[in-house]
Amino acid sequence: MLVISLRLRLSACVRLQILDAAPGGVDRTAICWLGQRPYLFPGTIEDNITLGRTGHSKADLLRAAYDAGLGELLDRLPHGLGTPVGDGGWGFSGGEIQRLALARTLLTGTWLMLLDEPTAHLDALTESRILRVICRAVRGATTVIASHSPAVLAVCDRVMTLDRGQLLVEEAHLETDAVAAG
Fold first, then answer.
1. Which end of the chain, C or N, has fewer beta carbons within 10 A?
2. Full domain range(s) for residue 158
3. 164-180: average pLDDT
4. Which whole number is the average pLDDT over 49-60?
5. How far apart (Å, rounded) are the C-alpha atoms in residues 160 and 37?
6. What is the mean pLDDT of residues 24-52?
7. Distance CA 176, CA 182 (A)
């Protein structure tokens, strides 16, 4: 597992150039982005996790939702995954929206994951739980995380500090698996 976290100072833009190594090119649907402020669309919780993608089972969908920490929410909602979602996530907290977007990411199962502050809006206990999920989910995928959270940085294989596009510091974390398992 290679996890790289970028600590960005001031405003920054990270540009990734993906080389088309395979004869058919890169399947861009195999690249997943989890933004810091994910958007929820009018529809249901299930609609917002799947975003119209097919080919997954109901069990896969539920596993992604529960792994992302949505279990308690789904259990208390009378319609579970069928619960309506208002435009922009009306009626849901920032942390619930973030977890819903994480479930969307987990269901995708990609080889390249780009995560921007994946534990933003979460309390410390939920952040710890979600980090364990992320560490399991990124196995076999190249993952780039932009974060300021010390807890997130602690589970990364490598941490790079950038300032105005310049690499200031690069640190390797050798005990990532021990931290992630804890």
1. C
2. 2-18+26-181
3. 65
4. 89
5. 23
6. 80
7. 10
52 vs 80, 104, 108, CA distance in Å?
A: 18, 11, 12
Closest CA to 132 of 176, 173, 87: 176
**What's the domain count of the chain?**
1
Can you give the three-state secondary structure of the chain, one letter per residue? CEEEEEEEECCCCCCCCCCCCCCCCCCHHHEEEECCCCCCCCEEHHHHHHCCCCCCCHHHHHHHHHHCCCHHHHHHCCCHHHCEECHHHCCCCHHHHHHHHHHHHHHHCCCEEEEECCCCCCCHHHHHHHHHHHHHHCCCCEEEEECCCHHHHHCCCEEEEEECCEEEEEEECCCHHHHHHC
Q: Give the CATH number of the domain where residue 105 resides.
A: 3.40.50.300
Pairing relationship of beta strands 158-163 and 166-172 according to DSSP bridges: antiparallel
Cα distance between residue 8 and residue 19, in whole Å: 24
pLDDT at 81 over 90: yes
Average pLDDT for 5-21: 46
Sheet with 166-172, strands from edge to edge, namely 31-34, 112-116, 142-146, 2-9, 158-163, 166-172
Amino acid at 174: L
